[in-house]
Amino acid sequence: MASSTGEGAAPIVLYHYPYSPYARRVVWYLALRGIPYMECIQPPFMPRPDVEALGVNYRRIPILTVGRDVYLDTRLIIQKLEALYPEKPRLGATSGGDQAIEQLLQSFNIDGGIFNHAFQLLPTDLPVLRDPVYYKDRAEFIGKSLTKESLGKGRPEAVNEMKKAFDLFEHMLLADGRDWVLGSDGPRVADIEAIWPYHWLAGIPGALPEETFSPSTYPRVYSWIDRFQKAVSAAKKTNGRAERISGEAALKLTAGSPWNEAPGSVDPQDSVVVADGLRGGDLVTVWPTDTGSSHRDTGSLVSISSTEVVIETRAKDNAATVLRVHAPRHGFRVRKTAGTTQTRL
C-alpha cells in the first residue's frame, strides 16, 4: 500500500523527456492533482546515465521515484500516485462501471495497438526522424528492423485504424455531448487513459491527414482535446511547474529519502510463485514482454501479487543505496535467476 501521507510524503522525481507521449500521461496527472514533483530530463535515445545510476536497466520512459521506491510503467505509476496526497481530490473512477470503462480505455490504447498505429503516422520529415540514431535506437527497442521507408509504408493502414478510433469517441463515447468521458465535471484518469494518443497526434503538424481528420469531421474529439489542454494548462498555472534537477541531484535526493511503501509479501498462491518455487529473498529477473524486453532488472524478491512485483536493487556506483523497483505484472515477466537465492539486501 502506497504512503497515505500528504505533505510528509517522500519526494517525487519523474525521469522523462518532454515529447514522450507516455510521459505526458504522468505529467498531466501530476498537474491535474496538484502533486508537487521534480523532473529529471532524459535524452530520447539510449544511453540514459541518470537512470543507470539508479541501478535500473529498464529503458522505457517515464520512470518515477517516490522516496527510495522506483516505479516502472505509466499504468502502475498513475495507480500509485492515486494513493498519495489524500487531501487532494483523486482522479480515478470509484464506481464499478466507471472503473471498467477506465480499464478498457487503458487496454484499448496500450494493448490494443492504437499507439503503434499512432507511431506509424509520424511524419518522416520530423527532425528526430531524420537522425539515423533514432532508427537504430528504436529498432533495438521494438526488437525488429525499423527504417524511414518501413515507417512510411505502414501509414495507409495506420490512417484507417486511427479513423476507427476517432469514430469510437466521436460517435459513441462523446456522442451525447458530454465534456468528459465519464460525464464528470472535469478531466479524470479515464480521460488521460483515453486521450493521450489523439492529443499527441493532433499536436504534430502533418501527422493526421486533413482530408480524413479535421475539427469539422470530428468536432467532439477536437473540442475534447482542446478542453483537456486548457484544463492541464490552467492546473499548471495554478499549481506551478516542476523543478528540474540533475541526475546527480536526483540520485542524492532518492538515496537520502525514506521508503514510500512498507514491504509487501510473496503470495504463495500466485501461479508463477508456485511454478518457480519463489520465496522472498530469491534473486529474480523482471522485464517487459513487449518493447524494451532486452533490458532486464535483477534483484532480491521483496513481494509479488497478482498486480505487482517488487525487487530490491542497489544504485550503480553506491552499493550502500538500496532501492525497491516496482513493476506491474501485466505486460511484465518474472523469472527466478537460476541457482541463486539470497537474503534481502
From TrEMBL:
GO terms for cellular component: cytoplasm. PROSITE patterns: GST_NTER. It comes from the Eukaryota. InterPro entries: DUF7962, Glutathione-S-Trfase_C_sf, Glutathione_S-Trfase_N, GST_Omega/HSP26, Thioredoxin-like_sf. Gene3D superfamilies: 3.40.30.110. Residues 10-89 form the GST N-terminal domain. Coiled coil: none annotated. This is GST N-terminal domain-containing protein. It comes from Cephalotrichum gorgonifer.
